[in-house]
Each structure stands twice: as C-alpha cells, then as structure tokens.
Amino acid sequence: MSFGLNSFLKKILPTGLFYRSLIIVATPTVILQIIITVVFFDSIWIKSNRGLTKSLVGEIKTLSDVYTGEDQEQINYLTEQFKYNFDFVINVKEEELPTISRERKYSPMDRSLRRELKRVFGSSNYWFDTVAYENLVEIKVNSNDKVIQILFPKEKIAPSSVRLFILWITLSSLLLISIAIIFLKNQTKPIINLAKAAERFGKGDFVSEFRPSGASEIRKAAYEFNRMAKRIDRHLKQRSEMLSGISHDLRTPLTRLKLQITLLDQKNISTKMSKDIDEMDSMLSSYLQFAKSQIQEESAATNVNKIFEEIMNEKNNKNLHLNFSNEIIFVARKNALKRCFNNIIENGLNYATNVYVNITKTVSRINISIDDDGPGIPINQYKNVFKPFYRLDDSRNLNHSGVGLGMSIAEDIVRSHGGGIELNESEYKGLQVRISLPL
C-alpha cells in the first residue's frame, strides 16, 4: 500500500528542487489560510448573519402585526417610521404570494433567511427573492388577506466585512508566496549553476569564472568542485603534454635515420628500413593526434553541415556522398568534432569504395549515420574497436597502417559532447557508424 502511494506521489509531484521547495513552503500557508477562512466563516460570519437575520425578521413580524390592527392612522404612522428608521420600502398589495421559489439552495444568506422566516411566519406565509435586485432583498408576507411587500438593502443581513476579509486573506497569501518564490529562486539558483557547470565539465568544456554562491553548504560543494575540476584539468594537460613531447622528441632521431638510410648503397635494406620508419612516423602522428584531442577547446555555436562540407572539400573524393536537409547549429568544440568525423570518414574511405553520410535532426537530438560498402566488422568486435591501440586482424586491416586510435579518439570526442556512438551493419553490406548528439 505504501509503495503504491509513493509511486503515485512520485508521478504527480514535480521533480525540480525549486518546485518541491515551493510546495513545502506554500502548502502550509495555503492550508493555514483555508483553516482561518473556514473558522471565520463558521464562527463569525454565519453567527453574525444569523443575528442580523433574526433581528430583521423580528422587525418584519412587528410590521405585520401592525397591519392586523384597525386604526389606519396608527398603521400609516408606523409604516412611515419603519420606512424612515429601518430603510424599508413597504407596499401593501391585494394579491397572493408567488408560487415560484427564487431561493438559492447553497447560499448561507438564503438558508438563514428561510430558517427565520419559517420559524416566525410558518412554511407557507412568506416568499423572498435575493437575486432579482443586485443590492436589494424582496420579502412578501401574508397579513389579513393582504400581501406586504418589503424591500431592504442586502447589507442588513450580509456583513460587508466578508469581502474585505476574503480580499485581505487572498492578498496576504499571494504576497507571502511571492516572497517565498523570490527567496527560493535565490537559494536554488547556485545549485542550478553548479549542476550546469558540472554538466559542461562532464562534456569536456573548460569551466571558467564559476564563483561559489548561496548557502554555506552549496558554497562548499562549489568550492570542492572547482578544486576537482582544476586537478583533472591539470592531470589531462600534463598527460597530453607528456605524450605530445615524447612523440615530438622521437621524430628527431627518426629524421636522422631517414637521412642515413638515403646514404646506404644496399637499396633492398634501405627500402625495408624506410617502410619501418614510415610506419613509426605514422604511429607518432596518431599519438600526436590523440594528444591534440585532449587539449581544452572553447565551445561555440557550430554549423554541423559546414563541418562535413569542409571535410568533403578537403577529401575531394567523388565516392564520399553527403545528404542533409536543414541547417543544424550545435554548441560544440568545432576542431574536435571535425577530427571525429574526419577519422570515421577516412576509415571508411580506406576500407570501402563509397561512404554515405546522412544527417537528420529531431526535437532534442542530432543523428548522424556514416555508412560504407566495405567488408564490415564482425559483431563480436564492435566494442573492441573503440579500445585504444586495438587493431583488427580481419580484412579491414589488410594493407593499411594504423595504431588503433582513430575510433577511440572519435568515441572520446562524441562522449565528451554528451552524445553516443555505436556500430551496426550498413544497408550497403558494410559498416555503419551512428552518432547521436544532444541539442
């Protein structure tokens, strides 16, 4: 039972901290105002209305008794006194009481008036209407085969303080809730900023000028986040610089070896050694590219379509086919994203004849599929392809050099942008690389 109730509450309650805090603050205020209103309405307004109605019906009863007498001068005198002192409009008519009731069933004023009139005049000797006139109440009572019509202001049985009370209690509630919203906004804003900074940092963006603010606990969390971000940035920078430095330093002896090989007379040996040195040079280039992918780059609004157009112009290959419809703008690190797409396209052109790039956009994501018509990759090797320095021994590796960092770099860049990358079998019987990026 409790589990079902918890599940139901989780579905209907908001998930955001601000709205949950607002409910915690506003709910007691609203409940308190409702209780105060009910207590006031029951103990003050209804009792006051009942007393006013009882007094009014007593005055009407007195007037009705006056009309039972035979002294016309006295009747006229008392009628004028009632009109002047009690603000009555009195008419005596030779007619019967109306048969159509104009009583409102759910009106406290009507219920109180009906109760008193029934107690004094009986159930069939009166008729009243509280809706025909905006500010007047009409009552008709039987008296000596005559009908006495009395009109009087509604204020005589409906205290005007009720409207003022409801107005003030509503305005005060709105004022208190508005103040609570302002304070809650100020308290939750630092948490939202911290969450956004953590999200940006998780996507690989460089977080700068993030100042801790808010309550002491939030400030402490933000301060520790800044320290953690700086440590991670420093570690990544040191690793990238070390890898870049090693790769750069190794190129110097390789260059000297190339010069010495050109001086050898034995061409067969020099040719084999040149191939080995070229392979080592290619490996160092891959290492440098991997190091560059770790370098921090500021994110900016980037046109994804133009990135692929630049790659297409640089490749100048008729076997590279690009298909997109609408212009897509994405906040990203342009150079890193271009390096990712270029690695995948270059891989497809190396192992296949044709490469097809298709770009689509939904409400919340960008979907990019890169297909080729090459030999493909076994399904059980899909996960291994993204491991650093992993090289396949199947047909996609024949006569092609590489150190197994291209797909690893591509995955790292896509993940750092909050996206996902996966491999599937292409409709062209080759490999399909699907990339999904959040907008």
Structure description:
This protein has 439 residues and is of the alpha+beta class. It folds into three domains: 15-162, Sensor histidine kinase RisS, periplasmic domain (Beta-Lactamase), CATH 3.30.450; 203-296, Helix Hairpins (Orthogonal Bundle); 298-438, Heat Shock Protein 90 (2-Layer Sandwich). It has helices at 2-12, 17-66, 72-86, 108-121, 161-202, 216-262, 267-293, 304-315, 334-351, 406-416; strands at residues 89-93, 126-129, 136-143, 146-153, 300-303, 320-324, 329-332, 355-361, 365-372, 420-425, 431-438. The protein has a five-stranded mixed β-sheet with strand order 6-8-9-11-10. A four-stranded antiparallel β-sheet has the order 1-4-3-2, covered by helices on one side. A two-stranded antiparallel ribbon has the order 5-7. Strand 10 and strand 11 (431-438) form a beta hairpin. Helix 2 packs parallel to helix 4, helix 2 (17-66) runs antiparallel to helix 5 (161-202) and helix 7 (267-293) packs parallel to helix 10. The longest helix has 50 residues, at 17-66. The radius of gyration is 44 Å and the shape is rod-shaped. Residues 395-401 have low confidence and may be disordered.
